[in-house]
């Protein structure tokens, strides 16, 4: 009702009467807004309520100017169907939000929800990603608000993400630059692997139990390795002191590293000799010759058929025939004294990639350093570093305390080339033994 000049207007009506069934002729139910519009509006309001302090979503008020300390940003109103938000959800801070969004969508299967909110200075102030049946928020660093991305090795929060195939997602994350800090394992009826993404955030990728603890070895995996050294007796003393290696009666095999590892003497410079698994030994020999190498058939100490070979850059290696029951090594073994990563330094990375791609079916992707490459889905993990003065394989040996191990290196007559440093996967130090063989010590997170 309304009045004019103190007189009651008999025909004045409530301006919202059309929304009430009783006042709307021909309508039996209250007028409801369009369902898509209602969902969009609800989502827009929910998103606006969670923006960082000082950020206003434009379009929510038509007659109110922003305060001088507030920034108006545009936001797309086109949204996907609402995803339930829990009472508490992760809000990640990353140094490079655009790259992070690409990584999470391509590697972890996330779906970008709406368009990121971009600040006047170009930084992403807010983005939403749907994954694992829920949603996470993401933004750039805002140092003035105390919001910074994690520092290497200083993760304080872990995110648990349900996945359909733990092994496949862990492998994909590793190929995309994540550090695998724990290989997939079975526990409590699930299979879980742990990675730290390139932006410093730790993910526990959990899927259904698949009883995949025992996996058949793949072509191209390193099934056996041996430390090639000028003096085997000196090497045994050194590595027993530094890594706690124990040996068989002949002193040629390490018995407590968790994988097949030996020591043998060489007239050449020290390196790590590798024997790779293949399905067809005759075919592998033919590919070695076709790729510019050469090799001879023989047998190993345990009676396996092998080809002792030399690649097209003069590096010795071997291939051996896979037998039933051969199990696959871990990608990153964690047993003290085990080799968890191998860096192959080479003068010509293109030739190396072509040769081993042809012989072992290796595929590779670019790594984080110039002329650096990572071999896809090989165990233990192998990286290639081009532009070296000579070819040499440098292993990373696992230790439970890098600082203490560095002290043992010095006490045993070795050299610490690079002091311990923290990386996303753990703490490492570059060293050389008392005969000049380079290696890394790795304390994995």
From TrEMBL:
UniProt keyword list: Lyase
Organism domain of life: Bacteria
Pfam families recorded: Glyoxalase (PF00903), Glyoxalase_6 (PF18029)
VOC domain ranges (all copies): 85-208, 221-334, 338-444
Keyword Lyase: yes
Presence of the UniProt keyword Lyase in the record: yes
Region listing for Disordered, in residue ranges: 57-84
MF-aspect GO terms: lyase activity
Alphabetized PANTHER family for the sequence: GB|AAF24581.1 (PTHR33993:SF14), GLYOXALASE-RELATED (PTHR33993)
Name the UniProt record assigns to this protein: Predicted enzyme related to lactoylglutathione lyase
Source organism (scientific name): Gordonia paraffinivorans
